[in-house]
Amino acid sequence: MTITQTDTAVLAVDGLRKIYNEGTDQANMAIDRVSFLVEKGEFVCIVGPSGAGKTTLLRCISGLAAPSAGSIAFEGEPLDSVPEQLGLVFQDYSRSLYPWFTNGKNVALPLAARGVPKSERAQRVTQALTSVGLGHVEKKYPWELSGGMQQRVAIARSLSYRPELLLMDEPFASVDAQTRFDLEDLILKVRRELGITVVLVTHDIDEAIYLSDRIVVLSKNPSVVKEVVTVPLGAERSQVETRSSETFLELRSHLLSLVMPNDD
Amino acid sequence: MSMPAHGWIRWILPSLTVLVVLLFWELVTAAGVVSPLQFPSMTDSLEALWREFGSERLWSAVGATMLGWLIGMVITIVLGLVVGTALAFNGFARRSAAPVIELFKAIPSIAILPLVILVLGSTLPMKVFLICFAAFWPFVIQVIYGVQSMDPVVLDTSRALGVRGPRRFFWVSIPSASPYLVTGMRIASAQALILSIVAEIVGGAEGIGRNILLAQNSGTTAYPTMYAYIIVAGLLGILLTGAFFLMERRVMHWHESQRNIRASSKVGRA
Predict the structure, then answer these.
(1) Per-residue confidence (pLDDT) for residue A4, from 0 to 100
(2) Alpha-carbon distance A113 to nearest alpha carbon in chain B (angstroms)
(3) Residues A44 and A78 in one domain
């Protein structure tokens, strides 16, 4: 990688390694050597066979877990905790949304932590909820909403403070298929409107192709980057046409051959 | 068969049971099965209770008992939350403190009563110290369990959102641990009431307990009054339990257990 590239990258992962229980008998290397760049405005998906250190990688690049070796830079700064300008969406919305707060209070939480004055918060909360297609749920509790709506609230919460980078860990894995399509289109729309950079971890190859500009394919445990696949599907995508296009199907079989466990 | 969902049945049945027990009491004393000198009749006891309800000394005794309970509970809860949370987050401190907590928890508070009376006398501080000693240990253990059992996703979320310091304590740790905290408070409250009355009976501090003892010492004619005060102590216990039950329903309305109760009562009504 050249210096100019690293400078413009929102996220630069270089030689990342993560070993759990390092130095004990149960030492387990989840990630061996992972390097990739995410440019500003890009949508990058991370895929890999189940058991590949996808979630581990996401925990490292979000600053929740410290890498054993290698470096991670967020906007050129080395990462040592979760940066203020980073949004994180977890798979399990029912646990990551706080049931003791209303949806409005949940969304306002990061705003309060960032010192946004109270008078401004209500307006920002409504704005964030509207941007994910929700209105009038501020006074309700998360558990009064459907799963898909709860994940929308979680997305709104991480958008409310206008992060530079949105990291998502299997965000649509716990909702039904129809809701999943809706949420995929929602995140594409949000990304287009806000010009936000997105990194999304998924085990679903179709989802990765449908959403991404580039796909980072991980090998199985311990993970290395097998290939970075560029997705030339353009900016406008639609569930019916994109998924049946020639390019989509070619990418699909290429990625499947990369991820299937019996070919190496 | 499921219980009929009519509200009045839920009140009538327990009231009937109480009535049956009271009648049985009256019969046993009236038939002379037990000596009325040791065991006054229900009517005499309730009459004494009625008389005491109209008197100043009952209410000042209740006030003194409740004051000890309240101060003891406030100290226990504040200290328990601070110490418990600190220990839950610090493994080294927790492992060091565990044997001390287990030891102090194992000492029945009544065992240190003579010592406390010796140092503090028959005073309110004596009562409060005893209450705290009985209530603090079980409560602090609940706080440690509660904070430790916090879902890792909940903690990760607070880190990802940048919620830290006092905000994290009040907005994340406390609500997340609250199922354990309310249980701990209920246990602490029962302990506090018991020790409050013990401190009054044995330690001679002002309150319901001392009035029980005074009535006992005033000869057989005052026995119904003694029973009246025993009943008052019981009623106080029921009142506190009920208050905690209502508080739990209000504060924990978001919790799964409360949601399930609401859901099942809705089905019952339909």
Answers:
(1) 47
(2) 5
(3) yes
